[in-house]
Amino acid sequence: MLKLTDKGILIVMSGPSGAGKGTICAHLREKIPMALSISATTRKPRSGEEEGINYFFLTKEQFEEKIAADGFIEWARVYDNYYGTPRAFVEEQLAAGKNVMLEIDPQGAKNVKQAMPEAVLVFVMPPSFKELERRIRGRGTETEEQITKRLSCAVSEINTLDAYDYVIINSDLDLAVDQLTAIIDAEKCKVSRNTSLPNTFELEKDSE
Question: Can you tell me the distance from the alpha carbon of 82 to that of 75, in angstroms, rounded to the nearest whole number?
């Protein structure tokens, strides 16, 4: 019997702080088997963080060796530390048929798309700028200066929307999760992901 590809899909999620992408991803993982990509970093572990769960913790030398060996789908240096998405981990999960979720900023998403053109880029938008500001202020964790900076970054990130494959406006969480589920279902049905089907059909036909 014919069936769609068993290979997983890499979903790259971006969106401004407060748009709700993390919440959408968390609820999606309750509905669909999903591996969350784990980043590598050279910074020291913080209290409560575990190797292979929160991050892969590497030395600077180990990280640079992986860069030289093309071991990252994307990477960046932030202040004095490196951060990156290990290629082997993602490829192993995809080959095993697991969908992989990666939450990353627009620059990182662009780099992922260049490295893995089959990746699906999804941008999460707030329903309005006013609602975004309300959500950020509602956290009660940032100073006025930090809030202003986050809102400014939001405008810059939204201006990268054209680089994405899909957009979700997160005004209703359940609807947003349903839309992301539909995106994954549609991607599974793409002809470009199922190029072996005609050959498989011929083999089945010949065996009858």
Answer: 7
Cα angle value 51/56/66 (rounded, 5°)? 150
Q: Are 112 and 74 in contact (CB under 8 A)?
A: yes
Q: How buried is 167 (Cβ within 10 angstroms: 0-12 exposed, 13-18 middle, 19+ buried)?
A: middle
Q: Which residues contact 201 (CB under 8 A, 6 or more apart)?
A: 2
Whole-number Å distance between alpha carbons of 157 and 39: 21
**Residue 120 parent element (H or E):** strand 120-125
The two three-digit tokens of residue 5, written as one number: 């590809």
Helix (H) or strand (E) holding 157: helix 144-158
CB 109 within 8 A of CB 161: no
Single-letter code of the amino acid located at 139 = R
Please give the model's pTM, rounded to 2 decimal places. 0.84
pLDDT in tens, 13-57: 999 988 999 899 999 988 888 888 888 999 998 888 889 888 899
Helices then strands, each counted (H, E), the chain: 8, 9
CA distance 128 to 151: 12
Q: 112, 11 in Cβ contact below 8 A?
A: no
Q: Residues of 116-138 as b/e, b for ≥16 C-beta within 10 angstroms?
A: beebbbbbbbbeeeeebbebbee
How do residues 60-93 score in pLDDT, each as one tens digit? 999 999 999 999 999 988 778 999 999 998 999 9
